[in-house]
Amino acid sequence: MSRQGTLVRQLVWPSALLCLLTGPGACAAEIWRHWQASDGLVEPFTRCLARDSSGRIWAAHGYVKYMSRLDGYTVDHVRAPSATDTGVQIAPNGVAWVSTRSDLERFSGGAWARITVPDPQKGRITAMVVLGEHKIILGYADRIAVFDPTRKSYENVVTVRDTRLGRFRSLVRRNGGGLWVTGAAGIGILNVDAPTREARWSELAVSSRALENFGKVFEARDGSILVPARRKAGKAATLLRHSGGHWTELYRSSARGTEIRAAWIALDNQLWLVDDHDLYSSEDRGWRLVPRAYSLAGEIRDVLVEPDGSFWVATSQGISRCSRRAWLNVATGPESSRTVSHILEDSNGRIWFLKVKALGSVLRDRAVMEYAFPENTQAEPSITESMAILPDGRVVIRTQDARTLMTFDPVTKLFSTTAIPNGASASVL
Q1: 328-384: per-residue pLDDT in tens?
Q2: Quick one: which of 290, 272, 291 has its CA closest to 282?
Q3: Less packed terminus of the chain by CB within 10 Å, N or C?
């Protein structure tokens, strides 16, 4: 994430017009940045990632004494916990938590404090969701429990005997409240009321019994979900989408025995997935394998998706971040050494750009159109306010002739001039 620079008003028109956009363009929409030890990480190997309320990224590494924290500009180091079995989780109040086999650790005052979980069975914690200071959901292979670290209370709320999921595999916070739970044989939804701790359990019907080992759910903004799984016959990894009560297979691995470690929707509703350690993005013609360069050359260990659709990838070689480009090529035009002195966008999304002897326009991904000025007419490039869009869509241009203003009608594709009364001056705003 580079620091934002100053926007220069005078641009040179090369073979592509660059515009500041938030939507898709005619070139690749993503841009990557990579962090390794030379960029300040404690070490390249990164096990897992978490994001706090300020947007800072916490990165847990291997068996080293410190973690890295990134804010996009700088990297600082904090003490590492004794283990990160289920990753690092940041509570709504900004406190970081980790699980260490059968207990928890809490980051406070620059150090990690051990929090004993009063589980009589002392089972291995395989998943954890921190809902608040007083409510942490703990997942085990055979049960799900609610733990209040403040009151030291602990209660099992669901066991494998209560479901048809088989051994539990993952817990993910659900957008509509509650948790997504996946298991060896299906997907469930768990809601636990804060005052009573009464658990409400339901299961999502799976379209085929030929599937097993359902992975971590990713929930899209439209309510649809992505779920990795494995086909029993052939052991091929598959990615499923559930929307409107229907299941669709989006991807099936060509290799036997691989695992889809993560799947998500990012940037401009683009699908991404990690098949074993290969990263793929969806395109119109299918799936594109992302080149394994820089930090992406390592084994992918974790993925963190931000609210704006950007995402982070933790690998054995460092950390990578993929974000939408601020500047995209929206069109390709003829080579020209003429300076573009002004750029505007009208209410229809059409981009207008002003040269000394011509007016150009482009609408989204269509071809660039250029309209030569009438003979002996030139724009005034030294004046910033030299072009404006009228409410009816016409373009007003200030020329070097101080006695007139020129207007272009995009419907008729014709220029016209308007005389300025003697003794008056005109400004285009």
Answers
A1: 565 555 555 567 888 888 888 888 988 888 998 888 667 788 899 998 888 877 766
A2: 272
A3: C
CA distances from 157 to 101, 125, 165, 190, 381 (A): 20, 15, 15, 9, 72
Q: What confidence tier does 19 reach under pLDDT thresholds 50, 70, 90?
A: very low
Q: What is the pLDDT of residue 283?
A: 87
Report the DSSP beta bridge partners of residue 52.
none
Rounded to whole angstroms, the Cα distance separating 105 from 297 reads 32
Task: Show contacts of 185-188: CB within 8 Å, 24+ apart.
Answer: 185/212, 185/214, 186/214, 187/214, 187/217, 187/227, 188/163
Distance CA 346, CA 119 (A): 64
In percent, the amount of the chain with pLDDT more than 70 equals 86
Q: Does an H or E element contain 91, and which?
A: none
CA angle 75–261–263, rounded 5-degree value: 85
Nearest Cα residue to 227 out of 255, 261, 253, 200:
261
Cα(104)–Cα(51) distance, rounded to whole angstroms? 19
Q: Is 61 helix (H, G, I), strand (E, B) or coil?
A: coil
Q: Are 101 and 94 in contact (CB under 8 A)?
A: no
Which pLDDT score, from 0 to 100, does residue 7 have? 29
Residue type, 117: V
Mean per-residue pLDDT for 24-51? Answer: 83
H-helix segments, 129-243: none
Quick: pLDDT tens for 73-97.
899 999 999 998 889 999 988 899 9
